[in-house]
Design brief:
Spore Coat Polysaccharide Biosynthesis Protein SpsA, Chain A, two-stranded antiparallel ribbon, binds uridine 5'-triphosphate, UTP:glucose-1-phosphate uridylyltransferase activity, transferase, NTP_transferase_dom, nucleotidyltransferase, UTP--glucose-1-phosphate uridylyltransferase
Length: about 290
């Protein structure tokens, strides 16, 4: 079996972000900043560092700020240049003309539906999916580690992270088979299992490498948990037909779609910074006594 390289990545950014209202009423959740960078930029940088060549955003109404973020900001750049200020901090964000690719999900019908909206851009190639509201911190980064694992085993490789057993009803959960280092064979998948019925405490975080056949399954637009078209249900149908592994990331995950995760991500990343870290740390220490 030849293993095709992963060149394309889908970023589903069409969700409503209701857990983060009122912040997300007029601003996309993916533009929330951790220290000084929006979540979407962390995710795009993770993909580019992992060797991804084509960035595909699945967007919706009210998400224009995301497109502007990766474009030229004419007034800002002209003014900064005139004032002799360095543009490096914004110039390195800008993508090549014609990239990223934007497709629309007219209604937020679920993650599976969002991924399916990019089917024509993906074509018959394997692709990555990154959910930008999950901030992953590690070296090499999460997607880079996954791509490395995928290059050995091929097929489908999804994140697999342990959570507390009482939390399993919030996530897609993996039924695990044989384990080999960071890779775990996936024997079944279930989205948001009822309390007490989860096959393990291995949840699926927002990082995936999938084969294009999943798009054919998503064509059926079957609804699952919460009445949404679930990516987990479509992926589950590939098990047995193609290699399917969970990958345990050596690093940290912050769920920034949730207030606690967002605040702790800001604290952790701020404390790790050379410029502001000492001041933030001494403030936190003083508060904790
Ligand atoms: P979430 O499950 O966090 O949903 O989506 P959400 O709507 O953004 O947020 P809440 O739950 O209302 O607060 C995870 C990712 O999938 C995208 C979101 O934009 C987010 O990046 N998504 C979700 C879509 O693009 N389309 C959908 O139909 C659902």
């Amino acid at each position: 079996m030849t293993i095709k390289p992963v060149r394309k990545a889908i970023f589903p950014v069409a969700g409503l972000g209701t857990r983060f209202l009122p912040a997300t009423k007029a601003m996309p959740k993916e533009m929330l900043t951790v220290v000084d960078k929006p979540l979407i930029q962390y995710a795009v940088e993770e993909a580019l560092e992992a060797g991804i060549e084509q960035i595909i955003f699945v967007t919706g109404r009210g998400k224009g700020a995301l497109e502007d973020h990766f474009d030229i900001s004419f007034e800002l750049e002209t003014t900064m240049r005139a004032r002799g200020k360095s543009l490096s901090v914004i110039e390195n964000i800008r993508q090549q003309p014609g990239s990223p690719v934007y497709v629309r999900q007219q209604e937020p019908l679920g993650l599976g539906h969002a991924v399916w909206c990019a089917r024509d851009i993906v074509g018959d190639e394997p692709f990555a999916v990154l959910l930008p509201d999950e901030l992953m911190v590690g070296t090499p980064n999460f997607m880079a580690q996954m791509v490395q694992a995928y290059d050995n085993v091929g097929g489908n490789v999804i994140g697999a992270l342990e959570v507390a057993p009482e939390e399993t009803d919030k996530y897609g959960i993996i039924s695990p088979g044989a384990r080999d280092g960071a890779l775990t064979e996936v024997t079944a998948l279930v989205e948001k299992p009822a309390k007490g019925s989860a096959p393990s405490n291995l949840m699926i975080p927002g990082r995936y490498i999938l084969q294009p056949e999943v798009m054919k399954i998503l064509d059926a637009k079957e609804k699952g948990a919460g009445g949404e078209i679930q990516l987990t249900d479509a992926m589950a149908k590939l098990i047995g037909q193609q290699p399917f592994h969970g990958f345990t990331f050596n690093g940290e995950r912050f769920d920034c779609g949730d207030k606690t995760g967002f605040v702790t991500a800001n604290l952790a990343l701020a404390m790790a910074r050379a410029d502001i870290g000492p001041a933030v740390r001494s403030f936190a220490e003083a508060r904790l006594v």
